[in-house]
Amino acid sequence: MTNNSSVDGKSFIRKINDKVIIVQILVVIFLCINFVLITTFFMKEIFYTNMRYILFANTLFCDCTNLVITNILLNLSYFAVPIPLWFCIILFIVSSLCNFVTPLTLTAMSLERYVAICKPLSHAELITSSRALQGILLINCLSIIPFIVILLLFFSSVSLSLLKHFVVCSVEMFILYRWQSEVRSAISQFYFLIMCILIAFSYIQIMKVAKAASGENKVSVRKGLRTVILHAFQLLLCLMQLWTPFIEAAIIQINLSLFVNIRYLNYIFFNLAPRCLSPLIYGLRDEAFLHALKHRVFGCPFKNNLKL
Questions:
Q1: How far is CA 178 from CA 103, 248, 283, in A?
Q2: pLDDT of residue 6
Q3: Which among 45, 115, 116, 200 counts the fewest CB atoms within 10 Å?
Q4: How far apart are alpha carbons 267 and 248 in whole angstroms?
Q5: pTM of the full predicted structure?
Q6: d(C-alpha 274, C-alpha 100), whole Å
Q7: CA atoms of 174 and 170, how far apart (whole Å)
Q8: What is the pLDDT of residue 301?
Q9: Residue 169: left if φ>0, alpha if ψ -120 to 50, beta else—which one?
């Protein structure tokens, strides 16, 4: 019986180790892809002086940071490595920031397409590189609010002396009572409701212009419409990622083994994959960026006269 147990234990450990190795390989691959996209962004001045591409680069930087931080947290949690609570808080501040920066940036990109297509005369004045940097600052400020609220709720229930304690870092440790989880859920729902409304507004307004447009304008407007649809799909992926902790919290009450498997799959499909595939798809469907990417990877000649 002991032998059987030990064999079962070994097999379980080997299976978990395989999963960790797969995650590390995926993280490295996705970071390499995003690194290529980031270096492509800095290749040409037309990218880092254009608001649309500056916002796109912001999502790339954010996604790379999120991949690194969540991977650190995953390994610390898996190997049960205790760290000071203050360091755990720093990691989760950065992680929380990244979780909201990407969807908020996607919303800003949709609004940029709305201004470009529906208000072309105001576009040059409103959509500038300096405005893009101001927008990124605002996005980061809005993104940090949810975790600040969670942190205030946490420290309203515990002593500040706890900062010196060593803990196995996980987001669940900041949720001490059910009502705190409900507040966290309400904040996430409020943010995504606002973002969905803004993206839907952009889509409807661009669709109205598309119906009235003709010739070359119609092609350009339809392209903008497809871009907004892509942003809506990217936002859906982000929404699913933010909902996974609540699904996992319900499953852990039912079955621990199922919880481990669900968390693993959630991490791969709703955290790792969207952080790479979403920006890659956006980069490949943009004509100017695609040509620059080909030039970066394959050495193809770059056309400077491409329309942005």
A1: 26, 14, 41
A2: 40
A3: 45
A4: 11
A5: 0.83
A6: 14
A7: 8
A8: 63
A9: beta
For residues 114 and 202, the answer to whether their CB atoms sit within 8 Å is yes
Does the pLDDT value for residue 14 go beyond 60?
A: no
Among residues 261, 278, 242, 250, which one has the least CA distance to residue 95? 242
Tokens of 287: 């004509």
Burial class (CB in 10 A: 0-12, 13-18, 19+), 294: middle
Please name the amino acid found at residue 61: F
- Residue 44 three-state SS: coil
CB atoms within 10 A of CB 201: 14
Residue identified by tokens 């490949």 is 284
Residue 257 near residue 142, CB atoms below 8 Å: no
Contacts of 295 (CB under 8 A, 6+ apart): 43, 301, 302
211 with 251: CB under 8 angstroms? no
Coil/strand/helix, residue 84: strand
Residue written as token pair 């990691």: 91
Q: How many CA atoms lie within 13 A of 34 on its CB side?
A: 27
Q: Which long-range contacts (CB under 8 A, 24 or more apart) does 267-273 make?
A: 267/23, 267/70, 267/74, 268/22, 268/23, 268/26, 270/237, 270/240, 270/241, 270/244, 271/66, 271/70, 271/241, 271/244, 272/23, 272/26, 272/27, 272/30, 272/67, 273/30
**Tell me: the pLDDT tens digits for 249-307?**
778 778 777 877 787 788 888 778 777 777 777 777 778 888 888 888 777 665 555 55
- Range list of H helices, the chain: 2-41, 45-48, 51-78, 85-118, 120-126, 129-155, 178-212, 215-251, 256-267, 273-285, 287-298
The DSSP result for 152-185, as a single string, is HHHHTTS-GGGGGSEEE--GGGG--SHHHHHHHH
Residue 240 is encoded by which pair of tokens?
Answer: 């699913």
d(CA 197, CA 193): 6
